[in-house]
Design brief:
The structure is a homotetramer.
Chain A lengths: L22 E8 L2 H7 L8 H17 L3 E7 L2 E6 L10 H18 L1 H4 L11 E8 L2 H31 L4 H8 L4 H12 L8 H5 L1 E14 L5 E12 L6 H7 L1 H5 L1
Antiparallel strand pairs in A: 1-3, 1-4, 2-3, 2-5, 5-6
Helix pairs in contact in A: 2-3, 5-6, 5-7
The structure holds 2'-deoxyguanosine-5'-triphosphate (4 copies), triphosphate (4 copies) and magnesium ion (12 copies).
Chain lengths: ~260, ~260, ~260, ~260
């Protein structure tokens, strides 16, 4: 930037560097998505296209930032896990938070039309962002468990609630009343006994959220004029809908993490 | 959020609250806009449509956040000034930075098509963000002067450079060489003597950047069936291209600020 | 420090720089001085020697740090005001806080014997410290008013309480009960009517606390063998017990502050 | 504290909470101890009494703060290691740093007379303090290795230097010149060949510094009138001068740490 007698004001910038050696989780969350979902006719309780759009944006963020080792999304939120050793933007908090949320936001609008089939975007949505440091693998895994358990609890509730309302013709208020204080087992029971729905058969994306991981391997990059497949070693992002609370996922996907 | 044994991880969030009593400036800046401008055929050195798009986004951010008292933009950057007394998001740094940059980013894609006339957006752009506290009116004004002087210096340079290249048929390298170490007066002279361009006659938006301020007054909100204008008291954002280094702007627009 | 393969750990230090342009107030406060005062037979409610010792330590801190423009003390606490422009330790928070509190603490023990006449120090006392930024002169003055009003309120209460207990033979519990919810005027009345004490006549040090300011002028530095006084220009710390809530103090002592 | 219209200024306090789950190391270091050592005739390069005084103060700090699991001292510095789970002062940075350094400083003056045999304290010394978070056991151990290796390097240098000066009659400048760029092996050689000193025979306190750890066990607390020893379970601080770079110390003393 140009030099002038005013340049001293740059010294007022206070740049926090996130503690080295920790995992950095950046979580973004849609602002006022209750209203945003209403305005855009999101299916209740889960809109497959809307969730797919979230995944597309997260994949784009991951591709921009190879230091992201895993991402987890559900509802209007996404968590990006940056590796312990990363020196992305010298671990500057503002840079990391703002770059992730900005890329996600513009991708959201960018991919809207191709994903939300015929629905018109009424206004540009906002997301907030926060970076959190986790010093140990245990705390990182507990963080991700927290988000996936949250997904499960909310989804079971919402699935039951909207089934009661839409299939059972029960008023919102009455459904809320009946579910107050109910346990998981109760909600499973209502779904099964009253509506013949086995919660286990619900789509994995709804029950587990989406887990983005890097895959590496040979990928067909083109075919020769003769039709022979040309394969190269490539890295790409895979979308999973699996359990990440249980240790098995980590043992098979991130064995190194557990040793540290 | 749902409660579980994993919820303790929320305690790892470290929320900085920006010092009360200070002006908060949030500056956003396009990431890699050198390349972005190339890819989208931005006119050199100033693309009116691109600058207009920046202004549209900034206006949208201001409307979302009435605590922003003024905004200043030039090139691929925008600074938003939040008032000293603001308790926006309890002055939480991450919330403020992320909400501003997220809204700006999604607005940029949202308004692209209607502003950039026929140019297709190749990829979703990213912006970084930082919030900076300024404790006094003097330091705030010096901050804004810093940005406007930066605009002036860059614009005079770029205008001269591209005139030499495009009108004078001089190679990029030679133009750079000739301008190295030159003073403002030299560049004005080159423009005038060699190309008959009076730099003063360049568009104010290019020379001064854009200043967004709130206006208040009666605005026509509709017309009756009989054609009578119905006016209501309204607040709206006005785009100016004026000098904000000189004290006159502040005396006439923000007299209270100077007393504090 | 010596260089080794372990030196990377130094990068984990996170140094906060206090916002430029703000006043920095470092407040220290005795830890558990309720008990410390008991153990060392402090006179109730005010022990002149103990307060004098606090002042001595504060003067020593000021002399070590010329950037401290004023200090204010009462009870077991002291506030040091560092000027806006100071670059003491590059405004590093930890350095500033720790140096002030460390010097104060060791001075407290150092000067104990010469100040506390025959009382033996039972154990080394601890003080906590915090640095707080104040962006404007108004907030700084309000800070100091806060501390002086606190001194006044506590001292009026304590003076009345201990008079009732020690002169009136009232039990601690009964005195507390009678003073619950009482106003200043009530306490003045009790002191005057029941015990003939005019609160206004109490020592200024007790009512107002202690204000340390720099003085400058000619001071006798020695006398010649002939007994002629030799005077040099010197700077020293003066102890005042005056009102700092009212603007008059500031007008006469720090006129420049009010212009900024 | 008393309530007044000025109390709003308390909101300007910005309290950083150190990241949970990390070890917290508080390192204090004497300010200007080069001069302090000169003024108080510290023996060169190691003054046993001065080092013993440092240890006494550190023991006192540890006793005040049971969350300190280990401390390491050398020269004019001491590092205190607070356990990962500690919620001391809710992990507030300023509180932790200031309480440690304040207690250390006042203890230093308090125990001076009884430790420094006949030497008079000329002026109260100051120490700075900083708290640093270490997220993993590895980084913590590397931190401590860093300090112990620093101790070793400085002590070998200083021992050789002062031997050359005091025993060899070499000037300071010449000794410095001869040692410039020398390796450990060279210094050992000089000591051995020129002065018959085997560096390995130097006192462990000088070569390794001091390691403070908690011990637990039966301790005689009194004797009955009949002379029978009465023993109770007690916890006390033990001073060691052992190697903490090598893993053996940790395996035997802190086996749990290595599992985490
Ligand atoms: N119908 C529907 N709603 C959804 C879907 N995904 C998210 N939402 C809505 C439901 C929730 O009201 C909201 C997410 O909850 P939040 O706690 O993030 O609240 P919200 O974004 O309204 O407020 P916030 O600004 O984050 O505090 O988004 C979906 O697939 N379908
Ligand atoms: N042609 C053209 N280029 C523009 C216009 N506005 C901004 N740019 C380009 C010129 C500069 O290369 C760039 C802004 O400079 P920056 O210092 O922000 O660099 P850039 O964004 O490339 O990198 P960064 O990621 O911010 O470090 O944007 C415009 O109206 N026309
Ligand atoms: N008798 C007597 N007590 C005093 C004098 N100056 C201070 N104190 C005592 C009275 C209060 O109990 C105490 C100061 O109040 P604080 O709120 O600082 O409480 P304390 O230091 O006990 O706890 P803390 O560790 O600061 O939270 O010091 C004095 O001159 N005479
Ligand atoms: N003669 C002697 N000097 C010692 C002893 N222990 C420490 N010192 C002196 C030697 C060093 O000059 C000084 C410690 O080095 P530092 O790097 O901490 O320097 P210093 O405290 O002078 O400056 P600082 O304020 O910490 O930047 O203390 C000792 O036992 N004997
Ligand atoms: O991006 P630059 O180089 O114009 O300067 P800066 O914005 O101050 O640097 P950074 O983006 O790294 O904070
Ligand atoms: O937004 P909430 O209420 O789900 O919870 P939070 O995200 O922890 O709160 P905030 O957005 O205010 O940080
Ligand atoms: O004091 P030094 O030079 O040994 O090194 P440091 O302690 O890391 O420097 P500072 O005291 O300025 O933090
Ligand atoms: O110590 P108190 O209760 O007078 O009030 P405080 O000093 O603001 O509290 P803390 O010492 O916990 O910061
Ligand atoms: Mg939220
Ligand atoms: Mg939301
Ligand atoms: Mg949400
Ligand atoms: Mg930049
Ligand atoms: Mg840019
Ligand atoms: Mg820019
Ligand atoms: Mg306190
Ligand atoms: Mg106290
Ligand atoms: Mg107190
Ligand atoms: Mg140092
Ligand atoms: Mg030192
Ligand atoms: Mg040292």
């Amino acid at each position: 930037m140009a030099c002038s007698k005013f340049e001293y004001v740059k010294k007022f910038e206070q740049d926090e560097h996130l503690l080295p050696g920790c995992y950095i989780v950046v979580r973004i969350d849609g602002r006022g998505f209750h209203r945003f979902a209403e305005k855009h006719d999101f299916q209740k309780p889960n809109d497959i296209q809307a969730l797919t759009l979230m995944n597309k944006c997260a994949i784009e963020v991951m591709k921009e930032t190879p230091d992201i080792m895993l991402a987890y999304g559900q509802s209007d939120e996404y968590s990006f896990v940056i590796s312990r050793e990363s020196i992305l933007f010298q671990r500057r908090r503002s840079k990391i938070e703002s770059m992730v949320v900005s890329q996600f936001s513009s991708a959201y609008v960018f991919h809207w039309a191709s994903t939300m089939e015929g629905r018109t975007l009424q206004y540009p949505p906002g997301f907030d962002a926060r970076a959190v440091c986790y010093p140990t693998t245990k705390t990182l895994l507990d963080y991700l468990s927290w988000r996936q358990v949250d997904c499960h609890i909310n989804n079971l509730y919402n699935t039951t609630f909207w089934t009661m309302v839409e299939k059972g013709g029960i008023s919102n208020r009455d459904a809320e009343e009946q579910l107050k204080g109910s346990l998981s087992v109760n909600k499973n029971e209502i779904l099964f006994s009253d509506y013949g729905i086995n919660y286990n058969d619900e789509p994995e994306m709804f029950k587990k959220g989406s887990v983005l991981v890097w895959e590496e391997g040979l990928k067909e990059v083109k075919r020769t004029p003769e039709g022979v497949s040309v394969r190269r070693n490539r890295r790409w992002v895979e979308v999973l809908h699996c359990d990440i609370v249980c240790i098995d996922f980590w043992v098979s996907r991130f064995p190194d993490l557990l040793q540290s």
